[in-house]
Amino acid sequence: MPGAPGQGDSTDVDRLRPYVERARRFRGWNLKGIAPKRIGPGPPWDYEGRARELLARATRALDIGTGAGELFAGLCNGYRGRAVASEPWNVNAPIAKRRLSPLGIEVVHCASLHLPFQDGVFDLVIDRHEEMDPDEVHRVLEPGGLVLTQQVGRNEWTELRPFFPRMQDFGPLLDQYTRGFRHAGMIIGQAETHDVRVAYRGLGELVYLLCISPWTIPEFDPLGRDLAPLLLLEDRLTTRDGLVLTESRFLIEARKPS
User: Which of 65, 199, 230, 202 is nearest to 132 (CA)?
Assistant: First the structure.
């Protein structure tokens, strides 16, 4: 007999299991095949475009938390300066090395909050969705150097919180980072945040994303104790467009005084 609404049965487990198993094989940070439909305008900035502009003027650049190097490899196309990528995850670091080393990009396996570089060695630091320490960024930048970062905002998937009270809240990161950069002595040139509604094609896509970002819901168990709240949120949040959630991003660009 099928379970009550929101309770789940073996059919629901079978439906979601392929996404869980696919997540176990996840490497790199390529989300090809998962492209939610945007409901409303996207952010008023272009992180990749701005990163390319800054790289065109840089001579020594660092990409913090490069993942498997997918994005940085493209950004460095035509770049002639020294390029370094750091990556903390021991699974991704060797993948990034295989991808980036043939391009002349050095890959360093290290924590993102404690960078193993000398003071003032870079004139550009970029970071997309990886934690950072403003003091460390300030330290490794030369006078006049720039940092550009895009991060996930506090309202990311805020609709999930009623169903998962243990969902992590990382606090007002935009304010924390801007205060941190200013406290380090840097000048904020841009600090913007943007939320937009997006629609996923189904619950399986969301389960996959939650599995590959285990910091979002600690001890996430989609085929066990978390199945019932997942089915309940599917029932409550699914519209004609799909399963609708908030996507939250913010961007900061700051300069170390000359």
Answer: 65
